[in-house]
């Protein structure tokens, strides 16, 4: 369950304090509400290509469960931090991309709103440092590094 309701609730709370905030939703169909800053992209083949053209400050994953949450890693490769639920499938990537302090409990729109506000309140220098740490964390998942780690630990 991707739990779009929690994300929408939190975004609308944030929107009350930040009228310029926009929410881009991928993976589900819906109707754009430009007056509220909500835009649906539906299912797309190359999220990274589209995201790199948008000014996205943070990625939100409000899933109840995940296997290996690829979208966190994809966004991290672009230096985009993720606010994610505290679930097993996301925990390793969240830790490695330096965004653990922005996680929230499943179904908690108030915690998600708090994390969203926390990131929006970072000054430019701190936000750029966070983006750099997120990108560096994504590098841990390069194919050659994973193969080498596997060889060292298993073989």
Could you please describe the fold and organization of this structure?
With 155 residues, the protein is mainly alpha-helical. It is built from 7 helices and 4 strands, in the order αββαβαβαααα. It has helices at 4-17, 47-51, 70-77, 88-96, 109-120, 124-138, 143-154, and strands at 23-26, 38-42, 59-61, 82-84. Helix 1 (4-17) packs across helix 5 (109-120) and helix 3 packs across helix 6 (124-138). It is globular and about 55 Å long. The mean pLDDT is 92.
In short:
The protein has helices spanning 4-17, 47-51, 70-77, 88-96, 109-120, 124-138, 143-154; strands at 23-26, 38-42, 59-61, 82-84.
Descriptors for this entry?
two-stranded parallel ribbon, mainly alpha, 7 helices, two-stranded parallel sheet, 155 residues
């Amino acid at each position: 369950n991707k739990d779009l309701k929690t994300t929408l609730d939190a975004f609308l709370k944030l929107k009350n304090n930040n009228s310029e905030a926009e929410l881009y939703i991928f993976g589900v169909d819906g109707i754009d509400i430009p007056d509220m800053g909500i835009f649906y992209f539906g299912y797309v083949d190359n999220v990274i290509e589209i995201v790199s053209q948008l000014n996205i400050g943070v990625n939100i994953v409000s899933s109840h469960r995940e296997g290996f949450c690829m979208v966190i890693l994809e966004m991290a490769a672009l230096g985009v931090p993720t606010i994610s639920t505290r679930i097993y499938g996301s925990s390793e990537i969240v830790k490695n991309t330096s965004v653990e302090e922005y996680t929230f409990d499943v179904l908690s729109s108030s915690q998600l709103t708090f994390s969203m506000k926390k990131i929006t309140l970072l000054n430019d220098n701190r936000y750029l440092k966070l983006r750099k740490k997120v990108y560096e964390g994504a590098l841990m998942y390069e194919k050659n590094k994973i193969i080498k780690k596997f060889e060292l630990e298993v073989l």
